Amino acid sequence: MTAGTSLLGLLTALLGGIGLFLLGMTMLTDGLKLAAGRALERILAAWTRTRLHGLITGICVTALVQSSTAMTVAAIGFVNAGLLSFAAALWVVFGSNLGSSVTGWLVAWIGFKISIDAFALPFIGIGMALKLTGEGTRRSGLGMSLAGFGLLFLGIELLKDGFAGLGPDALPRLGSDPGALALAILIGIALTVILQASAATLTLALTAVAGGMLPLTAAALVIGANVGTTLTGIVAAIGATANAKRLAAAHVFFNVATAVVAAALLVPLLWLSKAIDLGLGDGDDPVTQLVIFHTLFNALGVVLMGLLSRWLVPFLLSRFASTEDNAAHPRYLDRNVATVPQLALQALRRELARVAHLALELGDLACRHLQQQAPADAVQFTRRLEVIEKLQAEIGRFVGEVSRRQVHRDQAEQLPELLRIANYYDTLARVMYHVALSGQAGPRVLTSPNRDEQTDLLAAVAPVLVSAQAFFGAADPDCGEAPENIALRAEEARDSFEDTYQRSKAALLQAGAGGTDVNAMYDWLACLSDLRRAVAQGFKASQRFASLPELKEPALDSESED
Prior knowledge:
The structure is a single chain. With about 550 residues, this protein is mainly α. Helices cover about 75% and strands about 0% of the residues. It has 22 helices and no strands. It is elongated and about 105 Å long. The two termini are about 55 Å apart.
């Protein structure tokens, strides 16, 4: 009974250690993303200009957030949101795999050679004090990351105690034959899929080796962990853009190819790891040797990708149907970007500008259709409106997801304003859809039985249709110019439209008084009234778009409202 109770306690310590490690890693990653804000985007933009810059950035950022999985998912999210190009993100992902080796070195140097209580508990205490006193600020994110760092090493301490208590004979040792190595790789894959973190599997392997449970051939377990970490990237790319899928595929290729080469060269790599360990003067330390092995085979993968990238990049660029062909699919909204409020707001603005472009494009087509310059059928207009409506729904869902996270007050205030602007463009699209169908079989016919009268009426209306087209072109926020310049042009175009509208209205009334078909005249007047409403909606949207505050970093110690 005592032995059973003792075994249960040790297993509980193992489970608790894994839980604390994963909780600490989650808090560390989420806290750093909240504290960094848009700075992470600036770092990626500035340090991904070349392959070497991207590689170094991937290594450094992964070493900071202590999760190659988080870095890879973030890179996929940035590519999907249009914040990072595929070519730039590729070497960030490769670097993140090498950067994951830093976790092993921290565990080996700190987790096994320094008293955990000496620094872990102060980190947790200081971190939680910062979080509680700075709720909703970047200081809160910094505190969360510090507390997570401490919890991460408390988890390692529990794992060490658990494995040491189980003893070296608790599980059968892994052999060196191919079957045993394949089993170890499969175990590593399964553990990483379950734990959703290759760093957790690596830590388990290190603590198990330190406890004498596993021989150094647990390196095969670490190889499997690198393969298992690709699942998260694959899931993150489901439903994403073509470039995001290509990046996830590159991540899979890197890890699988590296695993195959490392498994084939396992014995030489283990021998080299032992030689390096002895050369460092640490003696015959299996923990250090396993960390060296992990670093060596990830570095080998980077070298391998350097040799194969000239073939890999063109191959991936030729694969995957672009989701951009599906206009109803969000191009910039990504659930991974939603975890960083600053980046989420930028992605929302880009998607909203795209919706604006589609709505204004529908308005332009409707005007050309009424002038018989580009006749279109009702199905074409219906499909265009459906695309806009679906994107509107996606924007609403994304705003809801962002608002449920810890968001700074200044950032939270922008969310309802973005929804208001989206509603203006939605109304514009609906009105112009109605205007377009007024030339089809609908409630209004916009025709007269007399062909000459039709020509006269269209001649009176044509100037205001052209003026509306000019406004739709001037008010497009997806043209790449500064919002304030677009707002200025939109105001000038709106004023010009209003003058033309009044003249066309007067011309229609004059034609009606002169004997033209009065019913047709009324139809055109109603049409122009709808057109005026659409322009008004577009004008209000452009002005509010321009008045959105610049995406600045919240101050580190700025307080949120109670």
